[in-house]
Amino acid sequence: MENKDNGMEIDLTKIAAVLLENIVFIVLCMVIFGGIFFFVSKEVLPEKFTTSASMYVTNSNKNQRSTDDIMIGDITASQKLVETYSVILKNDIVMDVVGDDLVASWDAEELGKYFTLQPDDEGKLHIKSGQVANCVSFAAVNETEVLKVSVTTGNPVLSRDICKLIIERAQASLTEIMGVANVSKLADPKIPTSRSYPNNKKNALLGVLVGMLLSCGFVVLKHLMSNVVTDGESITSRFDLPILAEIPGYENEKKGGSR
After folding, report:
1. What is the rounded CA–CA span in Å between residue 220 and residue 23?
2. How many CB atoms sit inside 10 A of residue 75's CB?
3. Global pTM?
4. CA distances from 128 to 49, 111, 167, 221 (A)
5. Do 137 and 87 contact (CB within 8 A), yes or no?
């Protein structure tokens, strides 16, 4: 099969043959790049640990009626509240309170490895606004009334503590801001036993893919830019000239050379 582009004919069969001839080089590049990506992922990239906990959100009017009176509208209202609560809980006002709780319970030097601590006018340390929120994400679980809180930091215990503080502060913070809030904790967050980032296996496979693409691209580009004529067909395809004669090469058995 041939593809014409800007007057140049590319024989895909020859391209495949060239790639096959350089298979050792290509595989070597794949191994090297895979090893480099794995090393960087394991030894250079910072580790991240993620933990999560869930809260059940109910409509405030739901508890005032019997079970038989609960309508589909209550479930829909609770699902809408999940979205509202997510926005409120990630507000800097709530996150700053969680940050102050962290400062009170953690050693300042250790906490300073993960957050920027700033003193106020009285010399009391606070985590820089917005930094705690950057570690936290909220999401509804499968569009249900369950609100999932996820926290990712460079320390597994710190991730657990932030998540725990958010769960503990949720009811009071939402009640203070909205006047009423019905959230129930479903489970306590746990200390993650394995890191969530980086994924060494995935990064190594990415390195293998990058090595394959770069090596194949190099081999193909080198072949297309080469001015070496390997057969008569190369001359006719490049210069559109007829071939008058070909001189075959042969081995000289007596001298051990070739002509």
Report:
1. 12
2. 15
3. 0.69
4. 21, 12, 21, 51
5. no
- Class level of CATH domain 49-185: alpha beta
CB 31 within 8 A of CB 211: yes
Of 215, 219, 208, nearest to 33 by C-alpha is 208
- The pLDDT tens digits for 128-183 are 989 999 999 988 887 777 889 999 999 999 999 999 999 988 888 888 877 766 78
Q: Contact at 8 Å (CB) between 149 and 141?
A: no
Residue with tokens 């957050």: 115
CA distance 147 to 196: 21
CA distances from 240 to 13, 43, 194 (A): 20, 56, 64
23 with 170: CB under 8 angstroms?
no
Residue 6: its pLDDT value, please?
A: 45
Q: What is the DSSP string of 186-221?
A: -------SS--B--HHHHHHHHHHHHHHHHHHHHHH
Write out the H or E segment, with its range, that includes residue 11: strand 8-11
For the chain, counts of helices (H) and of strands (E) = 9, 10
